[in-house]
Amino acid sequence: MKQNKKNKIYIIDVTNRDGVQTAKLGLAKLEKTMLNIMLNDMGIYQSEFGFPLTKHETNYINANLELVDLGLISPMILEGWSRALAGDIEESYKITNIKHWNLSISTSNQMTDGKFGGKITRDFESKNKPSVLGLMADAVKTAKKLGALTIGVNAEDASRTDMDFLIKFAKYAKEHGADRIRYCDTLGYDDPFSIYERVKTLAEEIKIPIELHCHNDLGLAVACSIAGAKGAIDGGVDAYINTTLNGMGERAGNADMVSVILAIKKSSGFEGNYKLDDRIKLKKAWKIAKYASYSFGVPIPVNQVAVGENAFAHESGIHADGALKDRRNYELYDFEELGRGEDEIIDTGRKITAGEYSGIKGFRNVYGKLEIEFKDDREAAKILDLVRYANVHTQKPLTSYELRFIANYPKQAKQIMTVTP
Fold this sequence. Notes:
single chain, alpha/beta, TIM Barrel, 9 strands
């Protein structure tokens, strides 16, 4: 197979927008911030980091945008999600200054009929009713007018949308200023073969980059994501795959980020033939997967791709013997590539932690282990107060990542943890 050297595959992680919509679960704003920092460190292209119109997100969003200006989250792009309604965009700009957007509206007959109840048409069938095309175009124009630098337009339920209308919708979005089209397999309905053909056709017709947003209702989210990306690149455009950490998301979840990256880098049809964004540092995978598991409170399955406890475990005599002779006999990639295998220090004696009722001596002990010193008691007391609030905020013992962030960025930490009804 001839390598496509022109177009690339980029990762847009949507954990902080779609992953946090996992039923009965969620993340504290501090935890979402830590994930943004870790995603940036991993070399991810973009994080869909929240809902600008949602008031309890305002301080978190604005503080994270400050972290972009300070260079802590850079070069990764922070992008907000919104309904494709001009009014929502206008209201969002009154409380935030987001420069990158994904604007979403349903495109299938099922959803436009089932959700909108006949109040909205898909095309311009009626002069007395708004249309999907018209609402989307107005939202894109409004975002551009208010200063948006990039806009992705989301075709919700694209996999159940007839191709003629999907192409028309995408072309109309492009004409009005959209930079990318997000093909949403909202119900996980596609299979790898159907999504490849549909996305390739779409790419050839519209000639702008395509995002793949796949859900895992049939267990095919990763397979469909890379098949769709192949379709986009074979159709002549860049591909952007939406992922979440550990596959979190509504219902059966979204495409797991680490699995997607490995599938592109290591599978027989992709390795050497399709180019992944070269900024990605797979060695950060282990740390970020573990932190996501801790923050969501969801254990990583033992057989999870790459980061599960058994991902490199061998018990069968033949397998164990073969792996010891040459790891390539039974291991497709190395555990070291994922950041696994590094020594961990485990305290087995006295342990002092920092929490909502910590005192100054215990607090100094904790930060001393992190090799962080304070210039005086006043500064230490200020950070201690923030650490207490953070413990209440997350309702979990704070990690070393969180403690370091609070000490180094106290102003933004305070803002992130502030929610005013």
